[in-house]
Amino acid sequence: MEPTTIAGKPVVSIKRKTVINMKSGFAHKLLCDGPTFSMGDSCVFSCSFCYVENQAQKDVAIQQVLTPLGKPLGEVVIRRENALAIMREQLTQGGRPRFADATDNRVIYASPLVDVAGNMDLVRETIDACHIILSLTNWHIRLLSKSSLLTKVAEALAEHRDRMIYGFSTGTLSDEMTKVFECGTALASKRVKALHQLQDAGFRTFGMICPSLPQRDYDGFAGQQAEALRVDQCEHVWAEVLNERGESLARTVKGLADGGFDFEANALAAVGIDQERWEAYARATFEAHAQNIPDGKLRFLQYVTKSTVGWWADRKSQGAVLLGQAAETSI
What we know:
Mean pLDDT: 94
Shape: globular
Order of helices and strands: EEEEEEHHEHEEEHEHEHEHEHEHHHEHE
Helix content: 25-40%
Strand content: 15-25%
Distance between the termini: 50 Å
Radius of gyration: 19 Å
Strand order of the largest sheet: 10-11-12-14-15-16-17
């Protein structure tokens, strides 16, 4: 029986035809080779910078679920009905695996929408989903979480460690800052400890320094992140400044201000109203990471414009990953 609430949020179910998105835009971010999977549409955590709510405004099915509750997406946990059965159907045809080619070693990523290890119920669901993928395909699976419970997934799937890649989001290393804009998640220190636990046990890992805020000392910030993540033991390290969509920036500024982080709140508000300052913030963040992360490992995600695409295109060899419509001009 599914819980009626998680983290104080009501839990509702939604009918979806698919769980796996075979042609996700996350391939452009190099997090996968196209496929992603999501077992739900709204997360147990409440991150101020989350962009999912902005996307959901145009989703009729989600709005039909939310309207009777009278709550915004961030205050509800939405899970997909019969998600595991739907996943199995997507990966089989006539009872046989659709993707049985031994050379098909694509990476599938989870999750674009919800955390894969938000609590033990979701941990068990993620383990079951991974077992289905591992048994029916030869794909590798990349899992990203803000929860130290991700180690439970790794332990349960230890026999498949060659095909599993684990990462934790660490946009900040401050536990106090985590509390104000990543509500309900594991503290940053616990995520770093969990990452080290996986690395020490020989699991494949990656870093995700995202989203990072404007800094007093960019090089110092990047150096601390590189040391904390043990980047030499990560296959790759993704990094990104705040992905501004909808009310994400305003919510983050308010959370920081309410939590007493006045410098960070003011700095983020300042770059949010000035495109040149925003670009300077992104470039300073990138350059600091490029100096602290070994060659070939950095994957810095940046949405570019016609006026900035040239600068970023010149730095692809250093790890810049260009996103957005203007990025196509650099190909």
